[in-house]
Amino acid sequence: MKVSYFETGRYNAPPDLPREWPVPSSAYDPETGTAALRGMAERVRFVEKLGFDWVSLSEHHYSPRILTPSPVVSAAWLAARVDTIKIALLAPIVPISNSIRVAEEMAMLDALAPGRIIFGMLRGTTNEYLSYDLNPKEARPRTDEGMELILKAWTEPQPFGWQGRHFQYRTVSIWPRPRQPLPPTYVLGTSAEGGAFAARHHLGLGLSYGPFDAMGRASAYYRQQCARYGWAPGPDDIIYRANMILGETDAAAEDALNRRDKQAPFPVRPGLRDALVEADTSRNIAGQRQRANVGGVLPISFCGGPDRVIEQIRRAREEMGVGVLDLSLSDPGTGSLDTTMSGLELFGRKVLPHIRDI
Question: How would CATH label the architecture of 2-354?
Fold first, then answer.
């Protein structure tokens, strides 16, 4: 089992920070923001020494919970400051991005840090579409077309034109190119469309936050589709992003979970809430229909002392076939940094050595 640390650029929010989405930009403190972003390097060097395999980054907007609207900038900053750990951009949000720009920036990162960059592509959530004024009904087709275009820009040796439904380019010929024709790349999401796309293009699959049984259905569908296209994914082809509360004992972790469950979410502003409900009444989560979690408190997938967490990880491997765990040691952006660092240290000392052969 490989392990990744989910780095969010944790903003040390004051108690009076407005708890709503989007958070007013007037509440942003430049010194606090700079400290949060520069602290990413310190945290990543720390998990590198602990033996983590990856650090992951994501793309989110208008909120201090995840202070990385540009994961490419974050990755470039980190790549210059760490030595061996791989940097996984589990982004961009494809439907709100310029696909050619994405292909160029990812290829440039691959040239700057050869062999150390991992890519992900995702559809994103409805609030992100509204941030950039995208009709949510267009998100799925724009995602599929955008991903096709990125892959072709990486692999096509000759200049080509693209006249699609959502993207039109007279000519495309990116420089630099990735060092290998297709860098390590994942499609992120649990939809049937995402799983089929990943299988068809021999890409990995990224799952997140859902319960093991639902995520197991998504990974099973992905493996079925891979067989249809004549190949079998290995454990490293399936990532699972999850929150973990790790304590010295089960009781200590459960106490932390109870405190965490009392945290207030970032509710969506009333006017935007109505727009989200109208635009996104349900999402396909591994074959189940449920509302998107926008501004809410994300679930905890692993909770306990080291021995219990090791068994939970073993069950995740068995039910999902996951080979890479992408972990936050507290709910992203809401837990204290001290708690996160102590949880990481405990994980590196008492869990990581015992899960390598799972």
Answer: Alpha-Beta Barrel (3.20)
